[in-house]
Amino acid sequence: MILVTRLNGSVFAVNPDLVQRVDATPDTVITLVDGAKFVVTETLDDIVERVLAFRARVVATAHALEETGTADVLELPAHPTSDSSHTRSTPTTSDTDGDLPAPTPLHRRRP
Questions:
Q1: Which of 10, 81, 4, 82 lies closest to 40, judged by CA?
Q2: pLDDT per residue over 33-49, tens digit each?
């Protein structure tokens, strides 16, 4: 996932495998394969760099896994505008005991 910023300043993650195209019109618009569009503050070049870094991280992790049989998950760089208030500093009970909440069902977008 890559982190991007909406025009209102909120940060969210986008799966680069679902990006169909990125336009600079003059705002940067990310279009996903399902037709969803997001206007973001990052430039076209920034988005391309983040996608390339994401793919390089995937390839490097896969290579390390092939070579050693194990691979450390490479940490994502911090988002330049993110603050530390969104990160958890201590694990919760569900993080340590292995219990995960039930998955949330996904629904198709209505046209």
A1: 4
A2: 999 999 999 999 999 99
